[in-house]
Design a protein that fits this description.
The protein is an alpha+beta fold. It has 2 helices and 9 strands.
């Protein structure tokens, strides 16, 4: 079996996981992506785990550190969707969240066409040190990859 990613740890400045930011992070990533925020004590006393699935087999672990991650550029984690409609629905949810909180940052892009591949995507960033690249990959008929990831 090929190697798979199961988690990413992100460090935030001390105090970043206190209220009301902790609830804001949990609410945003829950409302937009359906993730669950879980209070855990793995690295420090105030860790927050954003579970992507029920089994907690995929997650982002948020940890406070004195020397946190700093990403002034477009460092990001890609989130692959199945359809253009799913990407557009998530973008709509992000816009609704930005109406509630101006700290939601969104970068919208025109489709990137590279030969037989079209990438339909946007970036979103909210209270984390990296962007999330929400995308769908579409190939011209008969040109896609021979193997595809599936969730059962």
């Amino acid at each position: 079996m090929p190697t798979r990613f199961n988690h990413m740890e992100l460090t935030l400045p001390a105090g970043s996981l206190e209220e009301p930011e902790r609830s804001a992070i949990t609410r945003f990533y829950g409302d937009v992506f359906g993730w669950r925020g879980l209070d855990v004590k793995l690295i420090g006393a105030n860790d927050l785990l954003l579970a992507v699935d029920e089994e907690v087999s995929q997650f982002i672990l948020l940890v406070e550190q004195e020397n946190p991650m700093h990403s002034p550029s477009f460092d990001h984690l890609g989130l692959l969707q199945e359809t253009r409609e799913e990407v557009d629905e998530l973008l709509e949810r992000c816009h609704k969240q930005r109406e509630l909180d101006e700290r939601v940052r969104i970068k919208e892009y025109t489709d990137l066409v590279q030969g037989d591949l079209t990438v339909h995507a946007f970036y979103v960033k909210y209270l984390l040190p990296i962007w999330l690249d929400v995308q769908v990959l579409s190939w011209k008929p008969g040109t896609g990859p021979t193997h595809r990831w599936s969730y059962s």
